[in-house]
Amino acid sequence: MPRPPLISPNRLLAWYQSGTITRKQWLGGMRLQLLEALREISEDTANPQAALMERLRCRNAARRLTHKHTEAELREVFISLSQLDDFPPANYLWNADQLDTPLQSMLREKRVPVLKFKDVQIQRLSAKLTIEYGSLKAKNRTRERIQLRRDWRGVMIVEDRECLNKPS
Questions:
Q1: 157 contacts 148 by C-beta, under 8 angstroms
Q2: CB 121 within 8 A of CB 128
Q3: Is 108 within the bounds of a domain?
Q4: Domain contains 149
Q5: pTM, two decimal places
Q6: 1 domain-assigned
Q7: What tens digit of pLDDT does each residue of 91-131 get?
Q8: Could you give the number of structural domains in the chain?
Q9: Alpha-carbon gap, residue 64 to 60, rounded angstroms
Q10: Cβ-based neighbours of 54, under 8 Å, separated by 6 or more
Q11: Fewer CB within a 10 Å sphere, N or C end of the chain?
Q12: How far is Cα 70 from Cα 41, in angstroms, rounded to an integer?
């Protein structure tokens, strides 16, 4: 049975600062984040060949994304997606504003939960994305089309979300 998605650290902090959750709840959420990171590190240590292959796949996927769009554009889109409370992959995009974090670390090609950007079209005032996330098997993944636009402050916000399939 798959684990429920964790809430991203930036959302936990925003909720804590707004008073929505208590300090104890915030620390509990951050503890879960740490435990998940340590679990993945132990998996990588136990199987270094698979970890290397995943790293190479993600590096190649990041290279494909940066072929058509700049890293700054992609990071801006990732930041907007990380602000969504009901978007499970936000947990892997939350640090997109940190320029020292490579883009490939935000992608997951063959590691559960998978996060793939199938189609990305970014213009100056809008962006259209097709994203797959979830299971390793393509037929069990959730596929969404998300449209972003710039608001009056110049920040990308989600304008429309459409689920293209429901995983079986």
A1: yes
A2: yes
A3: yes
A4: yes
A5: 0.91
A6: no
A7: 999 999 999 999 999 999 999 899 999 999 999 999 999 99
A8: 1
A9: 6
A10: 108, 109, 110, 111
A11: N
A12: 30
